[in-house]
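Q: I'm writing up a methods section and want to include an example of the input and output format. Could you take the sequence below and give the corresponding predicted structure tokens, formatted cleanly so I can copy it straight into the document?
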Amino acid sequence: MHKRVWSLAAPIILSNVTVPLVGAVDTAVVGHLADTALIGAVAFGALIFSFVYWAFGFLRMGTTGFAAQAWGRNDPTEAYLTLSRAMFIGLSLGFVLIIAHPLIGQLALILFRASLEVESATAVYFGIRIWSAPAVLGLYAILGYLIAAQDMRAVLYTQLLLNGLNMFLDILFVTYFDYGIEGVAIATVCSEYIAILFGIWLIRHRTGYRVKPTLTHRLLDAGAIRKLLNANFDLFIRTLCLIFSFAWFTNRSAQLGDLYLAANAVLLHLQTISAYALDGFAHAAETLVGRAVGERKRSALLTTIRVSTLWALIVSSIISLIYLITGSHLLNWMTNHSDVLILARAYLPWVVIGPIISVWSFQLDGIFIGATRTREMRNAMLISLGGYLLAVEASIDLAHNHGLWLSLLLFFVLRALTLSFYLPRIIATTH
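A: Here is the clean output for your methods example:
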């Protein structure tokens, strides 16, 4: 099982790490321009799209859970149909987002208050990047299916293409063509459309899958669609809460001033890098737990939980050690503004301990996604968010930015504790 977990986790770790590296490159490229407000603008822009796109993260998570269970029942056709349903939903929602983007942009700027300079640059970034919405949401479904099928190399290839191309175009458009923040947005749009086309080609090339007319009745099966929508709605609420927690973090950072906003944005990139790396073990848990639930094998479920969590803890400790030793150098790479660097270094210890504290919630998320226990995930997140918001308001006046970071780590602890309360239900029903 140890080898199996690593065979699934390693490609995901490699591919996931490239995701926040894009944000880090965005910050690094913009961070070396003359205007410091652009750092905050990229942070705000990325946050808006996190809020908008991650709200539809159920397209990835739901696809993984249901498709993995279909594979566990030895029903590959249903796994393919799960992908098709999710793709249709994702592309449709993407076009809706394009139509509604003026309203979304205005609401986001009202919610995430910042200086006029930051808001102006953010509006430019948002207006360009929103055009890739169909590609992003459709790609969620593709990646969810590939994880469920345990085709982690395909996930790796797709993510490397997406994020590698994004970073290359970032540097090309901003550094060499001097497009500024517009270049950052254009680079992302181009990369996302190329990635979804590659993902579609990859699935067809590897499986030869097409939705056949004879399968239309299964594709449109009311029971399957209702089950998918119910689970996706729970995940939608859960993800909204998760994104709102980081939105609130950024909102309170902005209220402390543009300098704190920029410093926290840089530090959050480091936290995000560790989160994406540790998600490799969570994704491994998703597909293995889904298979175990589909096969109704409790022993396989327990072994998956034990082994994947063990390795996640080991890797989280290594990441914390790396941040302890090299954290200051990483900050130097991300920005050359001395005032931002001085402030970021003061709060770096929170990022150092972050991986060890947050890994528990990531791992439990993977277990619950694989088991498609979405209602419990929703309830746990609602409780955790309430505790987090209370902690922020209670601590920020007393401990300023330290209180803000303390509250964020407490949020991870609450998520782990609430999900642990529900975990025995999954074990009890798998037999």
